[in-house]
Specification:
Length: 116
């Protein structure tokens, strides 16, 4: 016996039915979309914040080395990136939109602003 995915009512009729009514189907799909949106919105806001921090730190500079501590204190989230790339020397760069950062040493972070 199948039950409606939204309201839990017993389903009658075709065995491939998953909702008891079009209303339940619509509500279920609306909620699903809403949840997906809020989950991605949280991560989007971390990424935007990271980009804002780098924009402020870099000013007009194209390449700059910062103490890791300075960047940490701004609330920069090192785990949130938009991509990764390895240069010819095998160094790993982490992308935050048009910025790329790299662990220069234990204490130093190199930030590069890429031309769009
Ligand atoms: Zn239902």
């Amino acid at each position: 016996m199948n039950i409606c995915l939204h309201c839990g009512k017993k389903l009658v009729g075709r065995s491939d039915k998953v909702f008891c009514s079009i209303e339940c189907k619509n509500i279920f799909n609306y909620n699903k979309k809403k949840n997906t949106k809020s989950e991605t919105a949280i991560i989007d806001s971390y990424l935007h914040r990271n980009h804002e921090i780098l924009t402020t730190l870099m000013g007009n500079s194209k390449k700059e080395v910062f103490d890791r501590l300075i960047i940490s204190r701004t609330g920069f989230k090192f785990d949130f990136i938009t991509g990764v790339y390895k240069n010819k020397e095998g160094k790993i760069y982490y992308l935050v939109y048009n910025f790329a950062w790299m662990e220069f040493s234990d204490q130093k972070i190199l930030v590069v602003k890429k031309a769009l």
